[in-house]
Amino acid sequence: MAKIKRKGQTGNAKNYITRTQAVKKLQLSLPDFRKLCIWKGIYPREPRNKKKVTKSLTASTTFYYTKDIQYLLHEPLLQKFREQKALEKKISKALGRGDVSDAARWERNAARPEKTGKPRYTLNHVVRERYPTFIDALRDLDDCLSMLFLFANLPSTSAVPAKMIARCERLCLEFQHYLIVSHSLRKSFLSIKGIYYQANIQGEDILWLVPYKFNQRIVGDVDFRIMGTFVEFYMTLLGFVNYRLYTSIGLKYPPKFDQLKDEQGAELGAFMLEGVNIATDGETKAITDGEEHGPDPKVQAEVNKIVQQLKEDESNEMALVSTEEGEEENTDAIDKFEPVAPGGDILPQPSQSSSDTSQLFSEFTIYLSRETPRQPLEFILRAFGCKRIGWDSVLGEGSFTTDESDPSITHQIVDRPVVQATMSSNGDGEDNQTSQKLGPNQRYPGRIYVQPQWVWDCINDEELKSPELYAPGASLPPHLSPFVKTSQGQYDPTLPLEAQETEGEALDAELEDQEVEEEASDEEVENDMDVDSAEEKEDEEDAGSFGGFSGDEQEAEEDEEEDATLERQRELEAELSGKSVKSKPVDAKMKAKLEAKKALDKKAKEEAEDLERAKGMLSKKKRKLFEQMQYTNNKKSAEDLKLRSKRRKLEKEKAKVNGTA
Amino acid sequence: MGSKLVEKKRKSRETESESEDELADGAFDGVLSQSDDDFNDLDSEEDAHDQDDEDESASEKDADDDDALLSDDIPSDVDGEEAISKLLRETELEIEEPGVDPKRKEEDTEDRNYRIEKDANGNERYVYDEIDPVYDSDDSDAQGPVNTIGNIPLSFYDSYPHIGYDINGKKIMRPATGDALQNLLDSIEVPKGWTGLTDINTGNPLNLSQEELELVRRVQMGLLPDDLHDPYPETVEYFTSIEEKMPLSAAPEPKRRFLPSKHEAKQVMKLVRAIREGRILPYKPPEEREKEEEEQEEVHFDLWQNEEPQEANPMHIPAPKLPPPGYDLSYNPPEEYLPTKEEREEWEKLDPEEREKDYLPQKFGALRKVPAWDSLVKERFERSMDLYLAPRVRKNRLNIDPNSLLPKLPSPSELKPFPTVAQTIFRGHEGRVRSVAIDPTGVAVASGGDDGTVRVWELLTGRQVWSVKLSSDEAVNTVRWRPLKDSFILAAAAGEDIYLMVPSHASVAPALDQASREILAAGFGYATNGQQQTAPGKEPPAKWARPGAKLEDEGVLLRITVRSTVKVINWHRRGDHFATVSPSGQRSSVAIHTLSKHLTQIPFRKLSGLAQTAAFHPLRPLFFVATQRTIRCYDLQKLELVKVVQPGAKWISSFDIHSGGDNLIVGSYDKRLLWHDLDLSNRPYKTMRFHSEAVRTVRFHKGGLPLFADASDDGTLQIFHGKVPNDQLENPTIVPVKVLKGHKVVSKLGVLDMDWHPREPWCVSAGADGTIRLWM
């Protein structure tokens, strides 16, 4: 006899488990369960049929896979949670009894990560479990980096201990150092939310967002316990990722950290990278070259010069070293296969452009003005090969030079408006180098002044942009996202309008132009045209319903008739208002265009009819699918259309302004 | 209660003092006080007892009622309280010297060897007692009053009352001898048991018995009052103190007594190992340890040292990445991305949840003007909420061109020709036109209507060329042409009669007319001659006869009378047979008539359901009968059921078979038109529901054009393009192409019948409004 099958014993009813059931099964509190889920990467599922899953009448909202929860049962962290729970109980009991000393003793054992920033457990095994290979970890690094960079910029509160913030900051800076050394930063984008960076590590594209250096406002109800749980995991993850990345390029991890420099705001400069085989070499390999030669601000200009020259020599040496390394790398690189004899197929090879872009700024000595954001600029410039970056001492420690008048400076990044009035120079009595400072708007000769966007546009386009466009005070060219992959037919702001617009649109636009011209002379006509178009629309709608297809010629005739009646009406109106009848000034060109438009409209109408007919033959399911697809496509194209029309308008305005000027 | 107690104590003291007064010799006084002093530290109970006694004795003497009452009031454990009260009294008495602890003072008075006196100046002066050298003191100077009579015998003083002199020269009196005391006592006569006390109850002197005196004595001696209890019993030793010479067991001393313990060694080694490995650390003050722990760095190592790529769990869905920022998120976007005023207002009006984007594009002239993004923390938080709380579902995105979904339709030009307009309207019938048919040559249209006439019209002009009135009371239900061009024979049914006629028509050559008449007449020569051999007593299924001279003149040459009203006539393709259906006739509803033999056969003795219509297969010897719900297909040669088609309609009105023979269209009274592919399935391939009323007739174009049409009660005909491909694997293409509107709906009836032209894309329709229309 076959086994009797009962309801709720197999299938979905067994495969899914509600959250309450899961919590009960694991004997955890809900916050602990949440933590465990976050760390183990267990997320709810959506069963196909909710009714089959729940036996209860009340609708549960969150379902987990039973297998997932079973897997959690063996988690060593579970034991830790339970121990912690028992400890808490002991403490509360002791306090209830009034045994303060006992409670204090237990309290010492209890982990208080929110206070110390250090839990009693490690998440190493969880990281390894979730990411069996290093590539897996890299793939999931987006959220990790965004979160840690955000926390590195948060103010410390009771919910976010200062230690956690410091640790986040350190991990982030270490990661940035890796990107600088390995030149794996690819793109960056200044958005209104913050700065997006994209790096390519071992073939994985990693995109993260770094907020601007402001005090972050915390709006809305944000549960920092949840965020903290994530951060805890992400810190462990990034720590191990950093270790692996550092060791992969022969560096020691963690790098030497200079507390003093960090306190002076050196940020990236507070780290000193060391090679792994330090025992044999006995010397540290400084990656951030210029930094250890911090210039003395009190020395005179001439002395400065000499020192500068010395430094340049040194840095040149360093550059040489790095180029040598580059050559070594070249031996590893792919060789170019050139066809010897004609007739063979050409196989595509990846280009070697990355090595070129990594040295984009290597020739320059760049000085950052006081008002520019130092951290992102320093990071990007270093990642793209710049060795000598100077900035004003107010921006923190670690600059190549704090002296603005340094003659070795080739580029200066400024972000201030051009002040026309020449003011009497400076009242900064405290500054030591006032004598060398120039007044506002005065520039040192022989150096290029650019706005910060220049740096971003250069790295995104992988070429040095012409600095004239980015001169201080100039209105900047639009800053475009390098992450957008334009698909066929999508609006692309980099291309000229003519290349993208459809035929109909172009015609419309031209007609509109002429109409606008007419508008000035006669408004009534325009009104009539409006009526006309409305009627036409109605006609179209009528044709949409089933009724086969009516003869097109017929309709065309009707249209003509309508035109004729309209003309008559216009005349009548003119008579009533006492004006003389104006024949429409229609030149031949306009007429041709109108014809073309009419033809286009007709074609479109035919196509629509065809489509309608074809749709009639689809099954209901397929028709729905089709309509959905059409819906999204239409929405996109409507957006593009809007953008194009806006641009057309703008261009027209610009042209007008130019014309009048 | 406490205050009462104290009061009572005070009173008892007073009584005591009274009793003291009363006791003249004070012998008891001293005894009691001595017992007080000596046994203060002893058992308080004892004390209490004797105090109790004293109290009792006192209370006996005291005649005060209150006191007696009070003493009665005192509960049974009064002994203990009395003891306490006594102690209290003592202290009370002694608290004369303020600031000095009474006990302390008591001790002091006992211990200290000086007195405090005031000297001339009024200062304190310590006057020390004379040192009393104890027995083994080496102080020879200080001695008590010693007899200093020197080295002379004491007998020298026998005659004197004194026995010598002390150091001060005073006489030391001879101590009284026993005799003297005895003599004195003897001289005083004391009654037996005399105490000198007075019984308070009687007022008589209180005499004590021997036992009582013994008790007093024992108390005096500091012994327990009753002699039954022995306070000092003989000790019984728990352990013997005697060491036995011989051991109890002769077993030799076990080895473990003199070998070091292995277990202990193990434990020690454990500890040693733990210390070596650093699990046990030397003690450090907790603060120091905490500090160290804080300083401790996180340990890092290569977590992926021996990594093994694992096959991802098929159930695992990785979290989707956030989309990369677009152009409109730039701090300095192209200007066309900036929202217009209306767009901005619209965006602001919407609820934050309803907004498509959570930001508006903004343009800042310079990087320094870009402010902090307010909701960044919130966005991150929402992302993390999504990561752990949002159910993940894998959705397959169809990355296909939507146009590929659309069927490849023939272009409209390919679909043409099809009828579009009403070319001719044939008027003449009174009442409804029930049936209409175009002759095989395509020049004449025959129609039959409610007025009982059959009319033949010229197709193109609409001129009526011939007419005959078959019946005055019955409507002509159906007219059908014999489908061969070698004749010009029309079959019509009115009521139970089927008439076969040869209408006169201009296009009909006399030869053709003659041929037709011969075909009809041929049957009369046949053996049956209209009379079928039937079982005796049974009515023949049909009677074949001449309709009468009047009708014969008109051209109606043959009449077949069946049992019930005939609704449908359908010819076989060869023109020799035709089938009639009379839905109301029970068993004989379907009949097949053979023209050449004037023979009528009823193929079904029993039919499930009411027969609606029947037709011959256009190519093979198959016969289709439609009942209300199903269409059955019979093989006429093998005489068996081949197939049952189930269109799923509630009430089939008509059907037609495609000229290819593999496809079938069915019209039903429940407004449906169904296309069946007979090879494919019993179920319909397509269901078309474009009519708002019942579908009356469906008809394929038989002349090679891929057209079919249906006529409905909503007054319209719908023309479809229905192409059956030659390839068996391809599905037929069905395209609705035209709705022909024109017929009026009269009493809920619209178009009753329609027929196609044999070659051209034209059709005629018969309406309930009494008209016939030609559509082309």
UniProtKB/TrEMBL annotation, chain A:
GO CC, one annotated term: preribosome, large subunit precursor
Matching Pfam families: BRCT, Pescadillo_N
Subcellular locations according to the entry: Nucleus, Nucleolus; Nucleus, Nucleoplasm
UniProt biased composition (Acidic residues): 508-543, 552-564
Ranges of residues in domain BRCT: 356-472
Statement: the UniProt record of this protein carries the keyword Ligase: no
Keyword terms of this UniProt record: Coiled coil, Nucleus, Ribosome biogenesis, rRNA processing
Example GO biological process: maturation of 5.8S rRNA from tricistronic rRNA transcript (SSU-rRNA, 5.8S rRNA, LSU-rRNA)
CDD domains (alphabetical): BRCT_pescadillo_like (cd17709)
Main location: nucleus
Compositionally skewed regions (Basic and acidic residues) per UniProt: 650-661
Record's keyword annotation contains NADP: no
Entry's Gene Ontology molecular function annotations: ribonucleoprotein complex binding; RNA binding
Region (Disordered): 422-444, 508-589, 621-661
Residue spans of biased composition, Polar residues class: 422-439
Entries under PANTHER family matching the protein: PESCADILLO - RELATED, PESCADILLO HOMOLOG
Role: Component of the NOP7 complex, which is required for maturation of the 25S and 5.8S ribosomal RNAs and formation of the 60S ribosome.
Family membership: Belongs to the pescadillo family.
Subunit structure: Component of the NOP7 complex, composed of ERB1, NOP7 and YTM1. Within the NOP7 complex ERB1 appears to interact directly with NOP7 and YTM1. The NOP7 complex also associates with the 66S pre-ribosome.
Full protein name: Pescadillo homolog
Organism: Echria macrotheca
Lineage: Eukaryota, Fungi, Dikarya, Ascomycota, Pezizomycotina
UniProtKB/TrEMBL annotation, chain B:
Single GO MF annotation: ribonucleoprotein complex binding
Localization (cell): Nucleus, Nucleolus; Nucleus, Nucleoplasm
Gene Ontology biological process terms in this record: maturation of 5.8S rRNA from tricistronic rRNA transcript (SSU-rRNA, 5.8S rRNA, LSU-rRNA); maturation of LSU-rRNA from tricistronic rRNA transcript (SSU-rRNA, 5.8S rRNA, LSU-rRNA)
InterPro entries: BOP1/Erb1 (IPR028598), BOP1_N_dom (IPR012953), WD40/YVTN_repeat-like_dom_sf (IPR015943), WD40_repeat_CS (IPR019775), WD40_repeat_dom_sf (IPR036322), WD40_rpt (IPR001680)
Comp. bias intervals (Acidic residues): 35-82
Spans annotated as Disordered: 1-122
UniProt keyword terms in alphabetical order: Nucleus, Repeat, Ribosome biogenesis, rRNA processing, WD repeat
GO cellular component: nucleoplasm; PeBoW complex; preribosome, large subunit precursor
Amino acid composition bias (Basic and acidic residues), ranges on this chain: 83-92, 100-122
Domain BOP1 N-terminal intervals: 157-419
Principal localisation: nucleus
WD repeats mapped onto the chain: 426-467, 751-776
Assembly notes: Component of the NOP7 complex, composed of ERB1, NOP7 and YTM1. Within the NOP7 complex ERB1 appears to interact directly with NOP7 and YTM1. The NOP7 complex also associates with the 66S pre-ribosome.
Family affiliation: Belongs to the WD repeat BOP1/ERB1 family.
Entries under PANTHER family matching the protein: RIBOSOME BIOGENESIS PROTEIN BOP1, RIBOSOME BIOGENESIS PROTEIN BOP1 BLOCK OF PROLIFERATION 1 PROTEIN
Record's function text: Component of the NOP7 complex, which is required for maturation of the 25S and 5.8S ribosomal RNAs and formation of the 60S ribosome.
Protein name per UniProt: Ribosome biogenesis protein ERB1
Organism: Echria macrotheca
